[in-house]
Amino acid sequence: MPNDLPESSANRAPLIKAQALLSAMTLDEKLGQLNQMSGQAASISPHLRSLIQSGQVSSIINEVHTPTVNNLQRIAVEESRLGVPLLIGRDVIHGFTTIFPIPLGQAASWCEKTVELGASIGATEAASQGVNWTFAPMIDITRDPRWGRIAESLGEDPYLCARLGGAMIKGFQTDSLGNSNAIAACAKHFAGYGYSESGRDYGFTNISENELRNTVLPPFKMASDLGVATFMPSFSDLNGVPASGNEWLMQQVLRTEWQYQGFVVSDWASIKDLKVHGLTENDEHSAMLAAKAGIDMEMVSDCYSAHLPELLEQNKVPLSQIDLMVTRILQLKYSLGLFDNPYTNTADFAPLANGEHLQAAKEAATKSCVLLKNEASILPLSVKNLNNIAVIGPLADDKYEQLGTWIFDGDDHYSVTCLSALKDKINEQTNGSAKVHYAKGLATSRTLSEDDFDEAIYAAEQSDVAILVMGEESILSGEAHCRSNIDLPGAQSALIDKIVATGTPIVLVIMAGRPLTISDIANKVDAVLYAWHPGTMGGPAIADLLFGDAVPSGKLPVTFPRVLGQIPIYYSQKNSGRPATEATYMHQNDIPLRAVQTSLGMVSNHLDTHFTPLYPFGFGLSYACLSYSDIHLSDEKFSKQEAIEVSVTITNNSQYDTEEIVQLYIRDLVASTTRPVKELKGFKRLPIKANSSITVSFEIMSELLGFYGQENTYITEAGKFHVWIAPHSATSHYKEFELID
Ligand code: GLC
């Protein structure tokens, strides 16, 4: 009997029940609990029925036809010997039928409440259809916008990712997994997936243990501490050992160091992939390595079902390991209350995509949009001085594309597009006197033909302002959808040039699953609002923001490079021994002929691009005019047993009420391993009324200043630090304090 499962009080009863049930199981029934099979699109084949009847299926993925889900559960509960119910898994990544902004967009809200609410609505809608397990949050850190899965991520920073990933877990799991609107969450992809070489998916990652522990692992540690129900390994090869066979990661880190109690499900056939990676010779070898690593359930492939019996026979996998794996899975099924309530009655839940859910999706989209440029305060627009408004672009009126990637159960019937929302708003505010001139300009975001430009040019020529809605179709980001060039696709840039040539002021709205390289474009237009893929209610959110019925408050969760060649570029970089500075920087076009080799300053930069990003992490404009006072320190020195308070006063010199995302950064000036030039260590999203001020403070204690050092243990070292309380990561004004032993 496995009794080395660490117990928390919440897990005790389910654990005891799981251990009791385990003792009644045959070996076949135990092994059956390790298998997840794919749904069959609202049908149940005789083969699947018989497997469930013989206890050989533990979970079904991708079945959301509720009557079929209930039938599957009934076969498991009423027609198998022990009646063990099924886990029904589905990717509810940013909503179920009501689609919220993609996670990267939600991260731009820096709002735990918003993210938690979105996850809880996704969970409620999914649970109403019979789903009781989702494969989210995705908490991979990445600094490479070529990688398509950056869209699913919560950005480049471990602190922001941990806080928002935690909010998602709470939203999915609620305060008890036994609640009818709770579904089990899954921390993925463990670990290092976002470092895939050249931004190609499923790739090789070469990450030092020090970088893993300081940057990649913290969000997963948070998830483990928070009690996330399950983990999922990444497809990627971590330093030569793919995660699904990586005993150091799954046993040493997850089980021994973190004492994680939940279970680990493989990614889609990721155990079978171990052979393709070249880690194993065959499926039997893969099953052995994965079981020993501690992958408890196999997603859809059959290495376990085909080979664990003989591996047990040959004592290559101990029965005690199998018992542990099965107990973890049964424990979750008890925690979810599935033995007592295996069936779903949709009538017990509010309707999908109801008004309340759609309103929440609109609010999330409103908070997620980031205002990157607002030349001469062209925004907010006012209908008072607009008689003709052009709305142009391939994404201005596309109900589907604004939803983004991973929207298996999204329904674009509910989508409200930019064009529709702008028309409603303008007609409502001008009683139809102002005219909206719509032209798509391009059939899709990838269209190269300029045949439809004339209509768009004409619309702009007729108008006082041109609102362009452009970017990437949703298929250009997400899993396996990586791009080696992250400019606007197709002929969109050419279309923008044509609209610029009309002289009509331009407001550019970009919908995309990643940062795009928009340096040239941004220089040519008057305003840029980055909407990510904003989800079902993106249109009304964007219309409110453009016309001032809402004030932009989003801030970037990821750095925007000027050009592709800067990647990876991120705010929390190391200083290097020769950092670039404004004083040394000279563009290659300005270098004098026959310049002496050392005349340019021997520093870390590219000759053809400024060393800073186009837009830094944490950046976002508002309509309000906010100013930060000097930082006040309660003390300039403190010991490891003490704390200090740092504070600023923020003044809103405008007539706009707003919310400001105030960011706390520190820098450890000297340490036994080099530390980043800045690290986010706190943030608050706070309302600031028009023409008012607020004082914002943060407490700094020694734990906040720790890091994993050369021994890869968490340490705090005395010494001097810089601290910023700032509107974004590129502000220069700081104060210094000292931590003393
Ligand atoms: C996919 C993804 C993973 C997802 C799983 C189930 O390949 O990598 O994130 O949860 O399969 O769809």
What can you see in these coordinates?
With 741 residues, the chain is an alpha/beta fold. Helices cover 29% and strands 18% of the residues. The protein contains 20 helices and 28 strands. Strands 12-17-16-15-13-14 form a 6-stranded mixed beta sheet, sandwiched between helices. The longest helix has 17 residues, at 319-335. It is globular. Mean pLDDT is 97; it is low at 1-7. Bound molecules: alpha-D-glucopyranose. Alpha-D-glucopyranose binds next to loops.
Essential attributes:
single chain; disordered N terminus; alpha/beta; binds alpha-D-glucopyranose; 741 residues; 5-stranded parallel β-sheet; 6-stranded mixed β-sheet
Low-confidence runs of at least 5 consecutive residues: 1-7
Shape: globular
Question: What can be said about the biggest beta sheet?
Answer: 6 strands, mixed
Named once each, the bound ligands are: alpha-D-glucopyranose
Percent of residues in beta strands? Answer: 15-25%
In DSSP terms (H or I, runs of 4 or more residues), the helix count works out at 20
Termini gap: 47 Å
Structural class: alpha/beta
